[in-house]
Amino acid sequence: MSLCKSRGSTTASLVAVAAALAYATLSAPPAFGHHSYAMFDMDRQITLRGTLKELQWTNPHIWLQVVVRDAETGQEVEWSIEGASPNMLRRRGWTRNSVAVGAEVELVVFPVKVGGKPNTGSLSSLKADGKPIFNRQDGPQEDAGR
Amino acid sequence: MTGARTGRSPLLACVFAASLYCGFGAAALAQSPVSEDALPAGPGSLSGLWNTLAYKGSRNNPPRTRVVRTVEGEWPPLRPEAAALLEERIRMSEAGTPFVNAMMQCLPGGVPQFMFGTPYPMQILETPGQVTILFEMYNHFRVIYLDSSHPEDPDPGFMGHSVGHWEGDTLVVDTIGLTDKTTIDEVGMPHSENLHITERFRRVDRDTLEIVTTIDDPAVFTRAWDASSIYKAAPPGMEMLEFICENNRGARE
Fold it and tell me: What number is the ipTM of this complex?
């Protein structure tokens, strides 16, 4: 019933695997390599308070642009915070209308590691106008491909 | 993800859920009275929405624990070159620079990686002559042609070319034509374009779908080996959502 295609050259395939190994060993980490939780310092969490400037409610990840006021200097700094997918978040009760642009938000984030893109983080929890919106501890939050 | 049942009869709830998702399977079920003890089996028993419980993301699972194992729980029988490549990719992941798998590039993980689970549901549709699997993950699909044969030398693809037939209560699916742009798992277990996948789909009880996958690729493995995936029926009312990988910003910045 099922016809199998004839096998290609095992030797050629071994050469291909060896070539891939050489590539993996010799080449520098690819540009895509930091699309991973590895770019974030998952051992460190910081709390940010500011105003939601923009919400990108898009797959595979949402992004929040938040203007954060530095309590000491009074300066405003824009942060980019990555969250899970809209699909995952919707199933956990956070929809695109749960938080309005302009809301006062309090976020706990995993910041990028030292040397990474500044003012960037991965979302751990979010409150908007004092109301809890999301906490990754409360349920599944794994994303594929990471 | 199996969710609490709200009705008094789990089987009726299951039939109701199936009727929401599949015309063909629901019709088959509706025509034959089903006792409380009867298990769905054979043609029509796979249709519906399924969630895997086995998916392991990278946040809480070290890379070595995410490598697909054999059904016996052992390390797959990799040839030395492939084993070294996988070890290198594990090391890269542990060092914070993980191997860039297909899904990190907004590409499908393909067969068999998708079948080992994603964090999102898949929907199986059984219609005359074919079984279709819809993946919420990146809105992809694969088609299994029943009682058919492979074309000569199919172009390598992410889902490959699949033909299937029923053996009693088990759908046996044979897949070839798989691109080596994918890996067996997300960590980066390699395969060649001669990868030959045989999957055995079986509804083992009302809530559970088992898929035993035989992985045969002589250039990469010393022998064919089996892995298994367990899926659970989605709670009634759960729907597939659109998932277009449109904003892969983390990969660009």
Answer: 0.77
